[in-house]
Amino acid sequence: MKSNTHVRLRDYDPAWTGSRKSKQELAEVIQENLERLTAAQELLWANEQYALLMALQAMDTAGKDGLIKHVMSGVNPQGCQVSSFKQPSAEELDHDFLWRYHTKLPGRGHIGIFNRSHYEEVLVLRVHPELLDRQKLPHRAHGKKLWKQRYRDINAFEEHLARNGTIILKFFLNISKREQKKRLQERLENPQKHWKFSPADLAEREHWNEYMEAYQDALSATSTDHAPWYIIPADNKWVSRWIVSEILVQTIHGLKLKPPKLTKDQQAALAKAKRTLAKD
To answer: Which residues pair with 82 in a beta bridge?
Structure first.
């Protein structure tokens, strides 16, 4: 999504499949992408120059967990970390609203995944402004002014990260209200999925329109050239997995990374090791 774009979510089809209609066909493409991602991650790790931050936002049941499981299945777990953000702790509430996210950022050579992210601070808190009281802000703005301030803070935060080598990709998994109902019903009716159901899911569904408005404003205000938003159709899980895997691979390949060159000392140590092994 280009920067300075006013988002209207009704213009994006959650059920879009493009020209690829077959789930099997997409499964093969995704597998190819996973193999390419494995190779790309090795170069990211070896160079230790860039970090990659992947932020996932969505309404409940949109498939964040499944996407992480499938798309990241081929990467080296030593170089990949998933952080999920629930209700903030007392320690986190004693800091500014971005602090807890900053502590989970990936290091150079690593991939970091935020399963929900710093955007909760302009989504959940906007729909439930009473939660702001826990943040104990000394000079709190109200209404639209507060959210505009937070958009500016988030943009500055992401710009700082980008300047220092963090590649930022932000994905909004765009599920329809109708498809969400179908998935919630499946959780209620299928004993194997009962553990996934939370009464909070239904409570948040009651605020669907408020969330859509909050998402539209946040996406419009915070999609930038250095930290773009991608609106991903999520009614078909294999489609969202295909698109995200494509974007990840193309982004890392776009860095044009090559195996790092060895220093003279490293070359000498390598030659010595070869001679030692040859004598063994």
So the answer is: 113
Do the bridges between strand 166-174 and strand 80-84 make them parallel or antiparallel, or are there none, so unpaired?
unpaired
CA–CA distance, 19 with 67 (Å, rounded to integer): 21
Q: How big, in percent rounded to 5, are the helix, strand and coil portions of the chain? A: 55, 10, 30
Dist CA 201 CA 121 (whole Å)? 18
> 253 with 259: CB under 8 angstroms?
no
Report how far residue 205's alpha carbon sits from residue 201's, in angstroms, rounded to the nearest whole number: 6
Tokens of residue 159, six digits = 């710009």
**Tell me: the pLDDT tens digits for 102-137?**
999 999 999 999 999 999 999 999 999 999 999 999
Under 8 Å between Cβ of 79 and 110: yes
Residue 80 has, within 13 A of its CA and on its CB side, a CA count of 17
Q: Residue 51 forms beta bridges with which residues? A: 166
Report the C-alpha gap between 63 and 173 in whole angstroms.
8
**Residue 187: both structure tokens together:** 């959780």
Structure tokens at 141: 């703005």
What's the pLDDT tens digit per position in 76-106?
Answer: 889 999 999 999 999 999 999 999 999 999 9
Tokens encoding 264: 């003279």
Q: Is 167 exposed, middle or buried (0-12, 13-18, 19+ CB in 10 A)?
A: buried
User: From the CB of residue 82, how many other CB atoms can be counted at a distance below 10 Å?
Assistant: 17
Where do we find the tokens 């802000």? 137
CA angle at 198 for the pair 130 and 196, rounded to the nearest 5°: 140
